[in-house]
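Hi there. Long-time user, first ticket. I'm pasting a complex I've been working with (about 632 residues overall). I'd like to know whether the download I got is complete or cut off, because the file seemed smaller than I expected. Thanks.
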Amino acid sequence: MAVTSVIREPLVTGGKTIKDVSHDISRQVEGKPTKLWWMAMAISLALLGLGAYACAMLLWHGIGVWGLNKTVGWAWDITNFVWWVGIGHAGTLISAILLLFRQRWRMSINRAAEAMTIFAVICAASFPGFHMGRLWLGFYWALPLPNTFGSLWVNFNSPLLWDVFAISTYFTVSLVFWYMGLIPDFAVIRDRAVVQGNKIRANVYNALSFGWQGGAKTWMRYESVALILAGLSTPLVLSVHTIVSMDFATSVIPGWHTTIFPPYFVAGAIFSGFAMVLTLLIVTRKVFKLEDYITIYHIELMNIVIIITGSIVGIAYITELFISWYSRVPYEGYAFYNRVVGPYAWAYWAMMTCNVISPQLFWIKKIRTSIVATFVLSIIVNIGMWFERFVIIVTSLHRDYIPSSWTMFYPTWYDVGQYVFTFGIFFTAFFLFAKFFPVINMAEVKSIIKSTSEKK
Amino acid sequence: MDADKHFVVGIFNDEDVLLDGIRKVRSSGVKIQEVYSPFPVHGIDEALGYKKSRLPIAAFMFGMTGTSLALLMQIWMLGYDWPMIIGGKNFASLPPFIPVTFELTVLLSALGMVGTFMIVSDMKPYKWPRQFDIRSTDDMHVMAIDLAANGGKSKDELKRLLSDSGAVEVNEKSFE
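Hi, the file is complete. Here it is re-exported in full:
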């Protein structure tokens, strides 16, 4: 007898059995890469190559070749940094916070979302790295290591240093969390390789799975580890973007010096992260034929998260405007007046349209269950979120206290090249992951199969 | 007969049947070596009579180590080793030290707990597991019973018990 809940739609469609799950997900790891994959990989590698050239030139000439000037000392570098870190947040939200809330729909999307988190954080970290000018000396300047400056330690009062600890902890813990999830699935591929008689693959995936066997005792410990990691990751993910926002909020620049920043940045991070997850998963489900695992229902739920976080971000924008008037501080007031009608008004209104107005379309069920509409809107949201950071950073700086030093920021080829470089890293890593690692958490999906299909 | 070498292996294809089976096998006085599953089965630890994992305690201890080390490091570096005047504030004041302390607490707690898990579960990249049935990572639950540990019962008795408990297949497995 098929038992399906009357309230909730099934999470896996197509009447899949447990065996089908192993087969459908392992298949793309075992098979030869498709033409489509090679094409995607070629484009990613081309971006990576182009970007690597730009970065090499950047290191050679020094960061003076960026479009920065005396007034605008921070622009694309930090914009891109915050943008990528924000994108990473969705992965942890899906795997940790939704685990604590027992949201089962996370199960078929958490693997890819966590992978995205890890790659996005790598991309983000490259910006402060390059900004130090001498990447290879970065460890000495960023970490409290004994050094030859008379052991002059790093400044623990600085939010930029908190960032170093927050981002590196976030990266490490996300990586461990993701890898823990992968271990049982690597064992599935290993055992299939044993059956198929592929010795090399069996050995490689056995090493990757740390000799996983799946005993009841190990599973019990494993679940306890997963729960605690989720409990640790939840405050961690909130702390990371809070600390990123403090890079700005603890300064005294009008437009940055606001207490609303931490929650506003966290909401924005989840907003942009979900948009990126949607962009990637809509492509992945198509390429690997995973429509039964990543269903329209999953897409709809993610779109609902986008409406909520998009609306929080919208309220934050309006609150900022209101407070800048209500505070009666002329500098604060001017910073926001300049944002809305100044020379960067086009960026401000691009941000408003993409982040506040466009996600409201998801209130309409037809739009939030449409793949094409979701795909387009997810890209629009990420463009909007890039503009949000650009607006916050550049418009607050370019007209400072002395009108004689007012100026504009124009990116150079090196600014663009380094941004392209991070896209190269991100997509190359993601496509490698999608080919060689199981893109869906098989063990977790298997555990929910029964309630949605045949029940004895 | 040598211990830990010769086994009777029951294959189950449904987790609810498996849980009933475990209870039945255990109530007849047979000791189960271990049950291998492709996914975590709810309630299997109680059915098998396993005690709760103490990993949360390990996580807490590692976390506290992180908190103390982070605070000691920051207070020593900025308060004693090289005091610096930053914004006219105290050399070692607690509020700005909170973020780094929090991050190191989480980092040590997570790494320490996962490391402990790897060690207690004997997981190593170069180790091949002893597989009672290759399907235990695919779609079958595999119950292994050590013959030597149940000397009182004959092989055939154990096999009959397993099929009566709902196993769809009963095999023998020996390791060198």
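A couple of notes from our side: The longest helix of chain B spans residues 55-81. The two ends of chain B are 13 Å apart (CA to CA).
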